[in-house]
Specification:
- It is a single chain.
- By secondary structure, the protein is mostly beta strands.
- The protein has one domain.
- 4% of the residues lie in helices and 34% in strands.
- The chain contains one helix and eleven strands; from the N terminus they run βββββββββββα.
- A nine-stranded mixed sheet has the order 1-4-3-2-11-5-8-9-10, with no helix packed on it.
- β9 and β10 form a beta hairpin.
- The chain is globular.
- The C terminus is likely disordered.
């Protein structure tokens, strides 16, 4: 998805194989831009798997904070859903760390490896309540 602060920008959905670049779109927001048009924001679905060309770098919020994340892969997430005026787009790294996309340094390149199953037209399995009234011995005789 595209963060609320990118609704004023031309956008398109992400596709497998897309080459994306982190870009500052103004209004305090960074997001992914399309390789074919840096002014087009690419909206990524939660659960999309991304691979960066190099270890991911963040804007340093404090002089003592670490700016490099020691991973090159991440899963796109949406956080802070309860607060419509907060940034929602984030990346989850293999160690469980979640970083807002807007905190990444500009100019980093990433590829879309895989979209979530529901975006690819495959329905996720639905949870079903157990059948009531059956005794376990009756279930094994069917």
């Amino acid at each position: 998805m595209c963060d609320y602060s990118l609704h004023h920008v031309k956008s398109r959905p992400a596709k497998v194989g897309d080459q994306l670049t982190t870009r500052y779109f103004g209004f305090g927001t960074r997001g992914f831009s399309a390789s074919e048009d840096e002014n087009t924001a690419v909206c990524v679905l939660p659960g999309t798997e991304l691979s960066f060309r190099q270890e991911v770098r963040c804007v340093r919020m404090w002089p003592w904070s670490k700016s490099v994340i020691d991973y090159m892969t991440a899963i796109f997430r949406q956080i802070n859903q309860h607060d419509r005026m907060a940034h929602h787009d984030a990346l989850e790294f293999p160690n469980g760390r979640i970083v807002l996309l807007t905190h990444l340094e500009e100019g980093q390149q990433a590829a879309v490896l895989q979209l979530p199953a529901t975006a690819a037209g495959i329905r996720a399995p639905q949870w079903q309540a157990p059948v009531s009234g059956l005794i376990p011995s009756e279930m094994s005789n069917t």
